Records
---
Amino acid sequence: MASLITCPHCGVRPKEEFSIRGDASLVRPAPTASDEAWHDYVYVRANPRGRTLEHWQHVAGCRRFLVVERDTFTHEVHSVTDGAVFARENGR
Amino acid sequence: MIRDYYNRHALDEKLRGAPRPAGVNHLAIGHRQAVAMVLAHAGEEDTVQQVLSSATEFTVRFSAPGEWLVVSESDTSEGLQRRIDAFCAGRAYVVDQSEARVLFRLSGPSTHRILAKGVGLDLHPAAFATGASANALCGHIAVNLARTGDDTFELIAPRSFAESLFDDLMAMGREYDLTAAFAG
Ligand SMILES: [Zn+2]
């Protein structure tokens, strides 16, 4: 488990200050998308070995949603981005 | 029996009895300060930060982007709210927190070692200088931590967590003979 996360607003913090809120790579389907697309979006998750994008909320700090890119195998944290900035940069 | 809960400090029960003399390491509980939360309107974050940090009538604590806690030792809660409103001129929401937060002031040569038992922040002056502030966990309680001097820190905690935080801090400070009392 990556134990130190560098929050863009608060600095280096222990993982206990955060709450992991799931896969950040998923894109919400259109409201009119098929039941299969919605089923995949809501329920189906990969369990990757390697780099993942996740939502981490800094609940005991700035309370912002962050997007953490980390490696589930080496525990290395590659980047931490504010959720709003991530959404803007990815055109969501 | 009519009891006026509003005028009862959250730590009255803990600090009841004859006041003990303050030791070298001392925990003072704020009694009469006004606290307000300020949330900048979208797009006005930088302006609000500038006006707040230029003020000398109160101190400003960073909580989150566009969000601060403002503390005043001299104003009433209504007075502080009016003062911030005048400063921000409609660029921010101001919410009075005076009765909802408890202020702990920890001072003495061992404060770093006491806080290190519960706070995951780097408290070295190079990383957390005088005037710095941040939201952080102290044990399991989310507080706003500020450094107000070389050996002085202030913690602002939700009122309902005050007794737990008080017990935690006293346990953390026991080996340094930490004393506690209401601020004078
Ligand atoms: Zn943060």
---
Amino acid sequence: MARMMYREAVLSTIAEEMERDENVVVLGEDIVGGNGTAGGPEAIGGIWSTSTGLYGKFGADRVIDTPISESAIMGAAAGLALAGKRPVAELMFADFIGVSLDQIWNQLAKFRYMFGGKTKCPAVIRMAWGAGYNAAAQHSQAVHQILTGMPGLKVVMPSTPADVKGLLRTAIRDDDPVIFLEHKALYGVKGEVSDDKDFMIPFGHARLTRAGNDVTIVSTGLLLGFCEAVADKLAAEGIGCDVIDPRTTSPLDEEAILDSVEVTGRLVVVDEATPRCGFAGDICAMVAEKAFASLKAPPLSVTPPHTPVPFARELETAYLPSIPKIEAAVRKVLSYR
Amino acid sequence: MQLSRDQLLQAYRQMKVIREFEERLHIDIQTGEIAGFTHLYCGQEAVAVGVCEHLSTDDKIVSTHRGHGHCLAKGCDVNGMMAEIWGSREGLCKGKGGSMHIADIDKGMLGANGIVGAGAPIAVGAGIAAKIDGKGHVSIAFSGDGACNQGTTFEAMNMAVVTKAACIFVFENNHYSEHTGFEYAVGTNKDIASRAEAFGMKIWRGDGTDFFSVYETMREVLEYVRVPGNGPAAVEFDTERFFGHFEGDPQRYRGPGELDRIRETRDCIKKFRASVTGAGLLTDADIDAVDADVMDAIETAVAKAKAADRPTPEDVLSDVYISY
Ligand SMILES: Cc1ncc(C[n+]2csc(CCOP(=O)(O)OP(=O)(O)O)c2C)c(N)n1
Ligand SMILES: [Mg+2]
């Protein structure tokens, strides 16, 4: 085991996979940095420091610094994958799916189906998502609710360094297109990570991060930690919460959630995406459809409001689900007898 | 054409306001009180001012993530802008947008933009509207050397030509898109203007560190685009950015002594002073008086921003729609 940051887990997994398989190539904006400048290449190694050192080790053919051209980056990832490579493309901010969505949605997600199962498109699209930096409406968004609804994409949302390791390796070795969502606020978080260069976590397997019999809480990303804090606080009062991190939203480990709700009878889903047609509503509906008889209270969700992400500190804080809001929701489902 | 004394003082004042606004932000950001990503415009003032001094509020501009200079040059209120960047409720956008999303539609400022390359298509729309209205108004798309590589910018240029939009693409080549050099990222032999030419536009080039070069170039460009039926044009200004890409950038891509050199030899404010005093058009005392006045204005803006009302949690919910 090694102790490392979430961002280091991203970088080291990519490096290990590039070492193992020469078909793995990375591409993105400023993932080298300094090309065409007096300072020379490797000026930055990605603005999230998730590609630092790769250029020196693997060279310009496999570490491709691109112009600001997201549509072409996503399309090139699709083309590289169809042509036998295993691209790991970076979108600097998840918000930039806006300018590149056709290549993600209509192209790489659909090739296999449209072509009658004759192709594989092993592209990984990594992107930094989430609020918490006062980066305002175009640099703070959650996108998993949009991408999870697109058949053909697998959507991965690691919330710990260990999960980054195991899930990113699975993503790179997977033959389908995978969206890999890295929460910006977690890049600096440290944790124990396996040294095993074949350590993989299969998709569609949730992780139970707290165990209890009274309430089921489902969450991902930054907010998972908030939920754990609430669970710990309530545990001191004798209230037990199952906290479930689905880890991948597509495929989704429905069984883990349903099994838990069958015991607790109460569900709170906490998510950073906006509420309409979102992830929280999706899970609540799934539970209502499949575990209705077990429910002792209506499923509740805690999400931001139906607004863009605001800039000012006070506004962003009010926008995001918070520990008090989550606690209130948990107490509310508990209040049903 | 010779500018009047008042025009010279006005142009200088505008550049100096931008310079001091940004220099002050550079300092205040280090205290941690200002949230978010901030991209400073220092070094490029001659472009924003040399363009906008020709414009009325009926002419529209569309800006970028590095938008403070464009906003100020187009007449956005200094206090309102400072308050916005400080995230205050009294900011131009009520603290909802921040540095990257300042807009003032009444002033013809259609918005800074956090999405690189998003501005040019919007400017085409405004340029088509100007064409329809037929009053000789124009729209301006400010784009960087990085934004010129975005497909949206290519589409905008072609569509402007096809629709004969009264639109001007102003490319500010400050040699960097974030940490990457334009010599690497711009494939057309280090040249942006020639791309625009290939799309079928008349093009101009100018020195973006010299107010007079920008101003005189833009006079010609505007004379051309304001003629109904002429359609769009493009201009590339070679310029410099004095700070990092964003505040906090280690700038490892710079060569040794690069920042000192550009501050010494490519500073539009120094050049302006040398030029007008050398020609006897203004005195050092005239310019010093503007400087003192501007320092006061910035000090006031900061004091007001700090004292301004903060947004409340309820404010999150307003302004999503007009009616719902
Ligand atoms: C669609 C999109 N891609 C990437 C970014 C990240 N980004 C912000 S500014 C920038 C560089 C822009 O360079 P340029 O157009 O030359 O403008 P400058 O920063 O030099 O003013 C990048 C890559 C973004 N904001 N939007
Ligand atoms: Mg630039």
